[in-house]
Structures are given as C-alpha cells and as structure tokens.
Design a protein that fits this description.
The complex is a heterodimer. Chain A is α/β, with parallel strands linked by helices. Chain A has one domain: Amidase signature (AS) enzymes (Alpha-Beta Complex). Chain A is built from 17 helices and 11 strands. Chain A has an 11-stranded mixed beta sheet with strand order 1-3-2-4-6-5-10-11-9-7-8. By secondary structure, chain B is mainly α. Chain B has 3 helices and 2 strands; from the N terminus they run H-H-H-E-E. The chains are: A alpha/beta, B mainly alpha. The interface between A and B is large, with 78 and 50 residues.
Chain lengths: ~500, ~100
Amino acid sequence: MIGNELIALSVADLQSLLRRREVSAREVIDALRERIEAVDGDIGAYLSLDIEAAIKEAEHANIDLPLGGVPIAIKDIINVMGQPCTCGSKILNGYRAPYDATTVQKLRAAGAIPFGKTNLDEFAMGSSTENSALKSTRNPWDLSRVPGGSSGGSAAAVAADEAFGALGSDTGGSIRQPAALCGVVGLKPSYGRVSRFGLVAFASSLDQIGPVTKTVRDAALVISAIAGHDLQDSTSLNEPIRDYVANLENDLQGVRLGVPKEYLIEGIDPQVRTAIDAAVKQLSSLGAEIVEVSLPSTEYAVAVYYIIATAEASANLARFDGVRYGFRAENPKDVLDLYGRTREEGFGPEVKRRIILGTYVLSSGYYDAYYLHAQKVRELIRRDFASAFEKVDALISPTSPVAAFKLDERVADPLQMYLADIFTIAANLAGICGISIPCGFAEVDGHRLPIGLQLLGKPLDEVRILQIAHAYEQSTNWHKARPPIAPDVAKA
Amino acid sequence: MAGTSDLDVAYVARLARINLTQDEAKTFQKQLDDVLKYVEKLRRLDVTGVEAAAHALPVFNVLREDAPRDWFTGEQALSNAPRQANGLFVVPKVVE
C-alpha cells in the first residue's frame, strides 16, 4: 500500500491493516511524517512534532491492543511527557511537560502513539484558532478560511489526512465547531466522563477532552480508550464505561429525536438550514421519530457562558505569573512588576480581555449581579435539557450557524466571534454530551465548505448519540468526501 | 477611563496583575462594554427561588485516601523554572 492510500484510512481500517501485518507501525509513522511535510506548510495544524520519540514507540508497539500502533495527535493544551505544551501562548515558552495527562496515559495503555501537538486558540479561548500566538491554521477545504476553534489544529489535521485521529478539548464547542467547519467528527463527552488531569484548565466546570476523528466508529474507539474515573480528577465520575463500539450497529427503530424550535433561528445560513432539514428527513427515513421540543432559555446561553467561563479562567490563569514555569519578563524591579509585565508580554489580547472580564464579574459588588445570577440561569438551561430528555432520546441542531468564515473576518469584534458558538455552548453549561458529524456542504465562492450536524444526548448517554450518528453516517456519503488538499487517490 | 458600563478596565487589569498600554485599555473598554451590554439580557429573567447550578450529575465531598505516593522530585518540579538556585524558585526581593 502506498503512503497516500495509507494516510487516508480511518483508525479502524488502519488497525485491520496493522493486525494483518500488511503495514508496520513504523511505516505508518513514516507515511504520516511525509504527509505532514507535504501539506502542513499550507495547513499549519501542528505546533510541534517529535518524530524520534514516535518512531521509538512504534518499534515497540503492541498491535493487539485496542489502539495498538495508531498515532493520535494531541491538542497542545494536554500534557504529553517531555513535549512542549504551549497552549498556543507565549507565556508557556520553553515549558516541557514533566508528566502525561491521564488521557495520554490511557491512550498509551491502549497502544496508541501520541504524535504531534496541534494548534489552538490561546488557552482554548476562541472559535477560529486565530487567537493562537504562535501560528495560523487554515481550513483544508479553503485555505483562505478558518478551521474553527479552539481545537482547529486537531480538526484541520484530521481533515487533511495529517492525523488518523486527535484529541481536542471542548469548553463551549471547541471540539464540535471545528469538526463541523473541517468536515470531520468531533465528540464532546458528558462532563466528568473523561479525566481532565493534565489538561491545562480554562473553565474547570465546562472543560472536557474528547476525540476528533474521520468516522463515528473511530470516535467510539478513542472514547473507549480515554473514558473513566480518575482519582486525580475529583470531578470525574465513578460510573461504568459502556461499550461504545458494540452498540454502534443498533438501528433507529423507536428512537425519538427532538428538534428544538429555538435553534431554528434567523441568522442561520440558508445552506446550513437546508442541510439540517435534509438530515432530519434522512434520520426519519431510518426509523427515528422526530418531535419538536422547546428549550426556552436558549437565547441566554452565550451570555451565561461568557460570565462563568471568564470567571473560572481569571482564577485558573492566575498561576501564570512568571515564577514556576514558562516565560518571565526581563529584569523585573519588584514582584508586582514581575507579574504585571510577564502577563502583559506573555498573554495575547483575547486572554487578557477574558481575565479582566472574569475578574470583574467575581469582584466585590458585582459577584451577585453577574456571577451568581448567571449560575442560576445556568440551572434553568440545565432544566430545559432535563425536561426535553423526558420526551426524546437526543436532540438535533446545526453545530454552527454558518460554514467556515474567512480569516480576519471576525477578529476585530469579539462578540461576533462568541456568537459562533451559539448552538454548542449550552451543552457545556448543562454537562450533557454532544457530537458533530458531516451532513453536507455549502457552496461559497466556488468552494465546498462542510456543514456539521449536532446531536446532543443525556448525561453519560454517549452510546446513544454515537449510535444515531453512526446510523446517519453509514446511510450517507458526506464522511467520504475529501478536501481538495487530500491526495488524489482518496478523491475516487 | 469610563465606558458605558461600571467596568473600569484599567483598574480591574491592575487587580488581575496585567499591565496594559493606554491603547489596549481603550480598545478593551469598548469591546468589554459591548459584551456587558449583551449580557444585560440576563436581567430579564426572574431567578427567584432557583438554586445556582452544579453539574448535570453532581458529585459531592469527593475524598481519596490520604496516602503518600511518588510524585515529582524537587528537580522535576524546578525543571521549568525561569530562574532557580539551590533547589528554590528565585524571584525579586519581596520583603524589606
């Protein structure tokens, strides 16, 4: 098998090949390296690669393990021992992780090879990866457009066949939205399903790590490896892990799907709307019953999010003070000068804005009016989902109201950028699980731009949304479409 | 530098230990005033009697055994320090 065919494979197909000994783990790393050398100059998905370490692991890979010999790219906000972990920020310049995140330990235990660190918005704050202080990442479907964010590097790498699968993190849509904009699969597990230990914290009550993959089956394979209770994360749930892969093949007879009427708002691109309507019809033809439901607090989700997420970020990012790791301003005259200039020079504008907003909403005199009030509205949002899930098994919506937008188009207006997450944010506030899968294309300026379908599920019911997503995917060809930058062989 | 909200960016930035240039403070003031204006919509909601949210599946009083275990050596903990000496992080003089 030649390199171009090899790198286009899904994780599941790569595994079959490895197990039949038709290719070695070492050859897989070599093919991936060649692919990255060929296209990453255009895409910019990776911040760092350690080929030597990956080759060493490939040579000892146990192919019979669940992900044996499979390279997985890691968003550069998750610690991988011995590798940089920049968080897309200058403030972690020079830092090397002295430990593995629990998810990375678990990937290794499943035989996977952590391979390369992918670009992101600084500290995962953004929806386009343009807030990375280190490099820009471009959408493989149209290089003049953003890959989405904040896990834009992970999504672009998977879409451009520069990775078989990747880990991302999702605080308000940061796995699902870039997956939608790049035409791949992105799964945000329920809060507490996957350990956050070793994930650099942005908003601790919202953050979850999850997979970005080419197929739904691959997402099931990766979450099977990383899910579970962890004594090092007191918010991780001590609940049994279900068999995500074995349950994929169940059909949709008797499954009830809710379409939230508040999600079909003005401002959705008409091409996105058409694709979602068609996907709902398709799911219905597969046997699902479609029901209209109401999530009345929907219009408040973005506002609640930008109070709670910034409040938590202002506390979490206090640790970046130039003392214990990373960048330190030169020649500080005293300790306040050390803090003030290290953070001035080390953080980019979006991170500064969010720390300032978060500090404000927690400050004396404003805490009740902003933070506490927002936490109560958050409870209303959680209740909306709880009552909807009494009637239906899962909810359907667009992942993003628009397809990929142009680089620089939204940078000057943070509020416009925040509204890109309008359909994804509520799931993090409520702690439920969600997945984005390809469901069509928008034609814009002669380019085909992917559209994502979002399925939201009950807490810890990843099995159900994976099953629905798989049934839909297998009945369509969207996931087989490859971006123009894909090798010729994959276009056939 | 007063904007349309109560937020004084220059003052809060000092609390958050972030030095800002005047230009930055001015830009952020305008942008964050817009965000605060947007979040005003939350005031329309009556939340009387609503408990602040925990999580979808809240867990409480999570404890683990208080047992010693291997963790970073001093050397590992210092491995990323911008400045260190004698097994310690070095910072500018804090007390007179």
